Amino acid sequence: MVTSDTKVVPSDVDAEEAVLASILVDKEAIFKVQTEVDPRDFYRDTNRFVYEACLALVEREETIDQVMVAHELSRKHQLEDVGGPAFLSKIIAELPTPIGVEHYARLVRRDSIYRNLIGMTEQIKNMAYTAGPELSAVLDRAQDLIMSLRTSDQKGDFEHVRNLLEEYLDAPGIDAPNANLLHQIRTGFVDLDTLLGGLKRADLVIVAARPSIGKTSLALNIARNAAIGQDARVAIFSLEMAAAQLAQRMLASESGLDSTRLRLGEHTEPEEQKMLGAVGVLAGAEVYIDDTAVQSIAEIRAKAHRLHREHPLDMIIVDYLQLIHGGSNRGESRVNEVSEISRLLKGLARELDVVVIACSQLSRAPEQRTPHVPMLSDLRESGSIEQDADIVAFIYREEMYVTEEEWQRIYPNKHYPEGIAQIIIAKNRNGPTGVVNLRFRKEFTRFEDLDLRQSETVYG
Predict the structure, then answer these.
(1) How many secondary structure helices (H) and strands (E) does the chain include?
(2) What are phi and psi of 448, to 5 degrees?
(3) Measured between alpha carbons, how far apart are the two ends of the chain, in Å?
(4) Mean pLDDT over residues 260-288, rounded?
């Protein structure tokens, strides 16, 4: 049996010394590597001492050269530890060229991550030995450790506004014939896409409503429209409903058949033909469903990353946010836990460059006031949901609160808003807010665009 002690620890001392030598001979080199490499990334302690001396000089806005670094090391009583001024002279003499400092820095960073990964496997192994009955908590912690490495490896940098503007100008409009999935994903609802300009990649979209109003149906409809209308790949995490139930809902919506009769198998031969046609359409859609009832945010992120590597995703739907476990054993309040979940969902949208739609429950507050229209403060256990979200969309159906008889008594000259759903865009980080009316076909669990030719005003 080969033990880990016989294996060589990932490290590249030559690359470390090349980074240091480049900094000593090129006054700009430190700024090229400072955001890429942390002192802890150096395998050899003496190299870390030299790098920390360079950072100290930068912080004091002093010149970095062989003399000044030697003086700083001496001041910290570390000069003899690194080998004296002779060591600094040696690495400068052996440096091929300072031009490749970024390449050397990436090698140092890469090996540091490998070493951290090895250390984490030891942590995970010890956790497995001593964890006891709490399997879920151990798995959550293990996934958090691995995901922390992936996140730490994703370092951004400046990009000239010219490049961003050129990319914007080159992008086709949402309704252009050559529009694609690179920039925005359509919801499939004309007025909603006009208001939002489509859903932008890296955005977190919150779809919130009271129970039985239709948030799951709206999310599924958007998933269907994106997958079939734009060939988008969509992952759905359903913590409330079984995958078979979701598939049945999608079938009812696509076929236009009553969902109850479909569930009971009560359909005629012509209806069966419609059903088979809908199955053919849906079967060709790139939609993946995970219906694990109890999941932590770490599990969702890990599964999303794995699926994204196999089938690059465009959209992720989570139904619904309050059912996700934070995976914390620190006794934090649920508000703090939900805040952490929303923050990580936003991070997931940016990491994978996808749209993340998270359904969310609302508190009972709308039912305790008149009118019952939702507002941002109604987000249940909201924490920082509002701050993390790029778009917050509420679903409001007046018919759920007022009977037709009551409506006619209050508004005798107006049509009862049966089947009318208001999609209230209460927050839009990159655009306007507003209200869009859709038709909700409850028997098909389907939202549709209103007939644009109808002349009557639904809401007064």
Answers:
(1) 18, 11
(2) -140, 160
(3) 79
(4) 79
Residue 316: per-residue pLDDT: 95
Task: List phi, psi (to 5°) of 46.
Answer: -65, -35
How confident is residue 157, by pLDDT bands cut at 50, 70 and 90?
low
**Cβ partners under 8 Å of residue 311, min gap 6:** 233, 286, 288
pLDDT band at 427 (very low <50, low <70, confident <90, very high): very high
Pull the structure tokens for residue 264: 């009971």
What is the mean predicted confidence (pLDDT) over 291-312?
84
Three-class HEC string of 278-336: HHHHHHCCCEEEECCCCCEHHHHHHHHHHHHHHCCCCEEEEECHHHCECCCCCCCCHHH
Residues in the chain: 460
Output the pLDDT for position 459.
37
User: What pLDDT, on the 0 to 100 scale, is given for residue 460?
Assistant: 35
Domains recognised in the chain with CATH numbers: 4-106 (1.10.860.10), 171-449 (3.40.50.300)
Is residue 404 part of the annotated active site? The answer reads: no
CA-nearest of 235, 402, 205 to 303 is 235
- Give 265's contacts (C-beta < 8 A, 6+ positions apart): none
Packed helices 84-94 and 66-75: angle between N→C axes, nearest 10 degrees: 150
Q: How does the average pLDDT of the chain come out, rounded? A: 82
For the segment 92-148, what is each residue's pLDDT rounded down to a tens digit?
A: 998 877 788 888 999 999 999 889 888 888 888 888 888 777 777 777 777 777 777
Residue type, 379: L
Query: Coil, strand, or helix at residue 445?
Result: coil
Catalytic member of 52, 102, 240, 386: 240
What does the pLDDT read at residue 234?
A: 92
- Residue 236's H or E segment, with its range, is strand 234-238
Rounded Cα–Cα distance for residues 120 and 117 (Å):
5
Structure tokens at 3: 């033990």
Task: Report the predicted TM-score, pTM, of the whole model to 2 decimal places.
Answer: 0.67
User: Helix 13-25 vs helix 84-94: angle between axes, to the nearest 10 degrees?
Assistant: 90
The CA-atom distances, in angstroms, between 33 and each of 60, 113, 194 are 18, 16, 44
Q: Which residues pair with 207 in a beta bridge?
A: 359, 393
Contacts of 400 (CB under 8 A, 6+ apart): 210, 212, 213
Q: What are phi and psi of 29, to 5 degrees?
A: -60, -40
What is the radius of gyration, based on Cα positions, of the chain?
Answer: 28
